[in-house]
Every structure is written in structure tokens, then in C-alpha cells.
Amino acid sequence: MKEYFVDTPEKLDELCDRLQGAAAIALDTEFMRERTYYAQLSLLQICNGELIACVDPLALPDLTPLMDVIYDPQIQKVMHAGRQDLEIFFDLRADLPRPVFDTQVGATLLGYGDQVSYATLVRDMLGVELEKIHTRTNWSQRPLDSGQIIYAQDDVRYLLPIWQRQLRQLADLGRSDWLEEDFTDLTDRRHYTREPREAWRRIRGIRVLKGMQLAALRELAAWREDRAREMDKPRKWVLPDDVLVDIARRMPENEEVLRKMRGLEPQMLKRLGGEILGQVTKTRGLPEADWPTLGYRFTPTPAQEALIDAMMAMVRQCGLQNSVSPSALASRRDLEQLIAGKSEQPLLHGWRGKLVGRSLQAFLRGEVEIKVVQQTLSIDMEV
Fold first, then answer.
1. Other CB atoms closer than 10 Å to residue 128's CB: what's the count?
2. Which of 121, 105, 117 has the alpha carbon at shortest distance from 178?
3. Structural domains in the chain?
4. Measured by CB atoms within 10 angstroms of the end CB, which terminus of the chain is less buried, N or C?
């Protein structure tokens, strides 16, 4: 396989010419995000089975020719655990490359766990042991040495053979089309759009807040999101989550109250204090109809907890019988929502509904009997 390190526009054009017309390409990225709001693309690896290339975005003024290849809808894109890579592509083009096949997702239907590593698949499916010495590399530093480049190349070197084997195994099991819905969801741009006024929902510990306090959190979180994006700094560098929640809880009226709160350093207070108080003041003027709510939170009774335990046993048994990761079938939260009467969830659709979702619904209707036969769980449908 020919190997390239692409760090000039001329080399990039040559690579793109060679990739034109490919049926499939393997993709991976290396990035840094510890000090920035947006993930900083530091290296892009690509392979079409005949060539393998590491593309250096730090040396190239424009990646458009390569992006045109990656976004070609006639080319199958193969990735492993690709959600973060897709996030980078979305930030670059405000859209996502399609179609995509994720070998980590494919592995869930072939008896692997929910988050099997690429190295495990390479070992189990191809008999190759990968080196792990560069897992903590700072990919933004230059120059990259030969060991780093080989490590990066390996991240795509084996992806197409794994994909092809997974396709054959899925076909043998009659599961070739089972993952279409999963991959459509994986490339749904709604998952990658950052809406500032929805940022509050991703903050932990917000159930201590209610009413106007939630409104304050929403305004503060939206302000922080805009600030972090503007500065291209991590959100927590603007204001940590726990401090954000505490401000929303206390609703400080002036800087003196703000100064007494834990977690607000003097420099931070000097720089941002006025803006923080401005968000709190704005919240006080909102009518109650504009306050957000957390919505109904289902809390199972002890009897319902026992019921969920039985349903989890059904899920595990179904996973064992069908060589599918139980966690890929349903989570405990999925089962809680099912008991609460929420029918719009992946558990009841597609291959999950076929394997276990409908049986769980039948169980809740009293139409399924669970018993033990020779120390093995047996699930019998009565109707």
C-alpha cells in the first residue's frame, strides 16, 4: 500500500486525484480540544485500500479539495467510534459526510460489547496487535516522528478489511440492513448543532433548581456558550458548571453578593462580574410563562423497580441468544421510559423492536412468561 504524508497543496491535489472514484474510504482524525471550544483538527488519516495518507491540516491553507472527496455521497465512509470525528467535519462544513458505516456500531450486532475498541477488532478479526505507545500524543506539535505517523496510519490501515468482514458476517446473520436507522441517526445534524439556549440541559446538578432559577441557568448557560465560542475557549474556562448552577440558585443582586460565592476568582469576577449580573437581571424581568421546566421525571416505585429488573433480565437473555450487546439493545432508562408509557424511543423501532422491544411490551401486558429451565432463563410468549 502506498503511503503519503500530505503537507502541500500540490500533494493534496495529487491525493484527491487518486481518491476520485473510490467505492469506500476509511477515515480518522487526530485533534486537540483541551484548550479550545472547537476541537482543533491536527491530522486527518484516509485510506482507500490502495493508498494510505496522513494529511497535515496545520500546514495546508485550504482542505476544500479533500472535503469535496469526503463529502461525495457516492463514496462510502468507514470510521470507528466516529461521533467526535463527525463533530469536527460538522464544524468545518456545517454538515456531515454521508453515507457512514461505524465499525464500533457494527460490532454490537456481532457479539462485541457496546464500545469495543478498534485495537480489539483488529486483533480479533485480523490477528494483528497494534502498538499503543502514542495514545497520549500531542498531535498539534510538529514535526511528527516516524513512529507517530505509523501509529496514525494504522488507525485507518485496517478499517476497510474490518468493514468488509463485518458486512459479510451481518449478511450471514440476515442483518445487512439492521443498522441503516442507526447510521442515519449518527449523521443527523441535530446531534451536532450547538444551540446556546439549549446548553443548560447538558449541565449536571440542575435538579436543585426550579422556576426562575432554571430561567437564570438557561440565560447564563447561553451567555457562557456564546462567550466560549467567541473566545474559542472551553466552557469551564469561562465559568465552571457548578459555579453556574450556584449563581442560578442564589440569583445574586449585586457584585458584593457575587464576590462572596465560592469558585469565582477575583480576576474572573473583575472580567465577567457585570455580564453575569446582567444575565441574572434579565431573568428577573421574564414572565413566568417563559421559564423553562425540567419536565416530568419518572421515579419507579419499589414494585416497578422489580419489574425493571425482570425486563433487564429479558434484555440480557435476548442479547445472549442473538449475539448482540445487551447495552446496545436497551438501557435501564429505556425500560423506565417504557413503563412510564413513552413509546417514541429506539427500543421499539427497527431491529431493537424486532429482537426485544415488542416482547417487552407483551411482558408488560402479561403475555410473556419467564421461567428457569435447567438453570437457564426461558422466556415464553403466551400469545
1. 13
2. 105
3. 2-191 (3.30.420.10), 196-290 (1.10.150.80), 302-381 (1.10.150.80)
4. C
Single-letter code of the amino acid located at 324: V
Is the bond preceding residue 143 a cis peptide, omega within 30 degrees?
Answer: yes
d(CA 353, CA 347): 5
CA dist., res. 237 & res. 227, Å (int) = 10
291, 211 Cβ separation under 8 angstroms:
yes
Longest distance between any two alpha carbons in the chain, whole Å:
71
Q: What is the pLDDT along the chain (383 residues), one digit of tens a residue?
A: 899 999 999 999 999 999 999 999 999 999 999 999 999 999 999 999 999 999 999 999 999 999 999 999 999 999 999 999 999 999 999 999 999 999 999 999 998 888 899 999 999 999 999 987 777 789 999 999 999 999 999 999 999 999 999 999 999 999 999 999 999 999 999 999 999 999 999 999 999 999 999 999 999 999 999 999 999 999 999 999 999 999 999 999 999 999 889 888 888 889 999 999 999 999 999 999 999 998 777 889 999 999 999 999 999 999 988 999 898 999 999 999 999 888 788 899 989 999 999 999 999 999 988 888 877 777 775 43
**Whether the Cβ atoms of residue 33 and residue 40 lie closer than 8 Å to each other:** yes
